[in-house]
Design a protein that fits this description.
Elements (H helix, E strand, L loop, with lengths): L1 H10 L18 H6 L22 H23 L5 H30 L9 H30 L2 H32 L2 H17 L1
Length: 208
Amino acid sequence: MLRLFCIFLISLPLSLSALSLLFPEESSYAEESKLCYQPLQTKISNQSLSPSPNQINDKLIESLARESAEIRMASIECLRAYAKTPEEREDMQRSYEKSLEREDNLEALEKKILIGANREYHLTPIEIQTSEEYFQTRQIIREGIRSFTKEAILLSEKEFRKEKKNLQLEFYLRYGSLLREREKFLFRLTIESRRSYLKFLETFTEKG
């Protein structure tokens, strides 16, 4: 389970930020998070989703964003069934916050793979700057996903039912933004840098 979590987080840049919530083993609700785990059903690879920067695959991006939002909400809703009181939901949120440390570590690893020199083609100084900007943008979008996730965990049952559709829409919009930012970033790299990075990433995840 953890291996699948790591591979997904890194391979599509983690772009999708670990859709189902998975809590560390030592945390409260760790076993419940495994029971509530849902994988992405759409088959995707590490490659760009679009054929060119002028032909962004909006249909696939929207489909992935919708599925990602549905998985995130289903995971939250499933977990909330185990946390009936405000105190239990606060405890669950603490477990979620602990899981974010693992996400941050995996993102740092992805960044290291991207900027690292252990590949046939290194990034140019301009590409490194582009990479830094990409990770900053991605972090802003991801913080929005995290914020809405925490809100969804803490809401009372009545408030959750009322806000569920709005929360799912917020997730959908942000997952779509993550995917589009990734597409734009990949096409800003030279063909050689992009191919080298994606090949190295694929090799890494296969060994993971």
